[in-house]
Every structure is written in C-alpha cells, then in structure tokens.
C-alpha cells in the first residue's frame, strides 16, 4: 500500500484526473472517483509514511496546479535517525488550499532544512538559542529543540500559523523549549525594544521564506538585524530563481556559503539549496559565532 501511495501525486485534489493518468484513459466514471474518495481514510496514513512525503520527492503543485497530496494530509511524519519520528499537524485541506496560509503545510524546503539540521547533529545544536523566521508548521523549530537547542522562538506574521507551530511543539514534547511570537520582517526601529530581533540568538533558521521576491529586501534586513549566522533553505519554483536570489544577496552585502541538499532524489535534491549566511560585519551578539564553523 505504501508503494502505491508513493507514486500518487494529486488524488486528494483532482481524484478523477489522477485516476485517468494512472489508468491511461481520458476519463474515468464518477462511480470510480467516488469509490476512491471513500478510501481516503486508508490512503492518508499510507501516504504520510511514503518517501514522496518524507523525502520531498515532488513539488507542492505540478504544472497544471494540482496540489501535492502531501500538503493536504492532516498529519505528516518525518523520520529521525535513532529517535522517534516527528509528527507534524497541517491545517491545509482541499477545501481551503487556495485561501489557507502557505505556513499551514510543510513545504519541500522545510523537509530539507530539518534533514540538514539532523545531519549537523546534536553536537551542533546543543545549548543554542535559535530564532526561526516564517516558521509555518514549526518543523524547523521542533527539530532544533529535539536536537538540544536551549531556547527556540518560532516566528511568523500569521496568528493561526503561530498557534499551529505551538501545537506541534507541544505534541512533540518540546513545548517547554519552543515558544511562538509574531515578527514582521525588516530592520526594527529604536522603539522596537521588545522585538525578537532585539534579543540574543546564536543562529537564525528559515525554510521556504524566499518564494516572494518582493519580500527579499526586508528578509535581508531581518537577517542583518539578527547579527548572527543564518541558515536558509530555498526552493527553485521558477527558472533561475536561486541564481537570482544569490545575486540579490550579494548586492545586499550578505556573504554566504551555498550547501547542497542532503536529499538524494527528486525535488528536494534537485530544486532545494541551503544557504549559510554569515553574520554581518561589525559587532555580533554576545556569544554568537561569525560563521558556520564558529557558531
């Protein structure tokens, strides 16, 4: 069942089209579509543990805008080496997928970030103070806490998303380490003494926060304002998007190291890159490192 589920893409979104593609026909009877939809309670847990969802094999939507089933599952499963898996709740559904916040589901960049963090290991994250930008479901923050971070702040501008991230932290046993707070990007003014950016951090993380090019300038300002190294996971959804992102970062004066995705196959391997952005020149926060090796 897992093998069959792994090969399906958009049966929750466009059941009829997906069945027609699988059977090699132009159209399938509505009775067959209705029967397959009745099997959804059996399909969802199988899909959740399939490599297509745990390894980011496919993009979030295809060329005709069918949504990836992984984005519409009520719960995702992410395996951890030598430890119980992370269980991440999603609130994006077929009924709300075009209106729901992008943060209501796990995207490929988030899976890649979590996997790379696991590869860095607890020796890297132990005792760190971690700030996550655009937390969404909270996968990155939960991963940091599970790897031993002393304090993690999951930030977003969407209140419903922040509540979801907090719920996922609690459900995975790290509610005492992970807290959630609103954060609007950009360089904070002198009056923003209570901004998360005014607090002390060791590292900033963020996944799939670069999809909107118009927001790149304020994202870069936010990274600079944190004054510590930043680990970003970015996906290429448009031609040359990652090359353009690198150019924009250089023009903004951000120094970075590009790291290949830890995934071996599919979308997560081919279309997602990691950026280690160095702390800006000048004074850094007390105790913070000045690069990946020095964090």
Overview of this protein structure:
The chain has helices at residues 2-7, 15-23, 30-38, 40-48, 51-54, 108-120, 122-125, 139-146, 159-171, 216-226, 241-251, 266-270; strands at residues 75-80, 83-89, 129-133, 151-156, 178-182, 203-207, 230-235, 256-260, 272-277. α6 (108-120) packs parallel to α8 (139-146). It has 295 residues and is α/β, with parallel strands linked by helices. It is globular, with a radius of gyration of 20 Å.
Q: Gist?
A:
The chain is an alpha/beta fold.
- Which residue ranges are poorly predicted, with pLDDT under 50 across at least 5 consecutive positions? 287-291
What does the main sheet amount to? 7 strands, mixed
Percent in strands: 15-25%
Radius of gyration: 20 Å
Straight-line N-to-C gap: 44 Å
Round the mean pLDDT to the nearest integer and report it.
92
Return the string of H and E elements: HHHHHEEHHEHEHEEHEHEHE
């Amino acid at each position: 069942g897992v093998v069959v589920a792994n090969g399906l893409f958009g049966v929750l979104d466009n059941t009829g089209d997906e069945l027609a593609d699988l059977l090699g026909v132009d159209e399938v009877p509505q009775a067959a579509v209705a029967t397959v939809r009745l099997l959804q309670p059996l399909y969802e847990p199988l899909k959740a543990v399939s490599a297509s969802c745990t390894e980011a094999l496919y993009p979030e939507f295809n060329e005709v805008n069918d949504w990836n089933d992984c984005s519409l599952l009520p719960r995702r499963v992410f395996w951890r080496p030598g430890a119980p898996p992370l269980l991440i709740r999603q609130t994006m559904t077929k009924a709300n997928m075009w209106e729901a916040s992008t943060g209501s589901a796990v995207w490929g960049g988030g899976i890649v970030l979590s996997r790379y963090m696991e590869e860095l290991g607890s020796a890297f994250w132990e005792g760190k103070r971690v700030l996550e930008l655009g937390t969404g479901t909270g996968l990155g923050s939960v991963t940091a806490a599970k790897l031993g971070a002393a304090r993690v702040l999951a930030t977003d501008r969407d209140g419903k998303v922040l509540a979801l991230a907090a719920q996922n932290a609690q459900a995975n046993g790290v509610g005492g380490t992970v807290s959630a707070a609103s954060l609007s990007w950009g360089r904070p003014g002198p009056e923003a003494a209570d901004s998360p950016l005014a607090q002390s951090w060791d590292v900033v993380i963020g996944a799939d926060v670069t999809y909107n090019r118009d927001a790149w300038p304020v994202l870069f300002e936010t990274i600079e304002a944190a004054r510590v190294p930043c680990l970003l996971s970015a996906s290429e959804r448009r031609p040359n998007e990652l090359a353009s992102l690198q150019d924009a970062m250089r023009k903004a004066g951000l120094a970075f190291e590009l790291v290949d995705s830890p995934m071996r196959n599919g979308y997560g391997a081919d279309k997602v890159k990691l950026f280690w952005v160095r702390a800006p020149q000048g004074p850094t926060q007390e105790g913070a490192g000045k690069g990946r090796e020095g964090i």
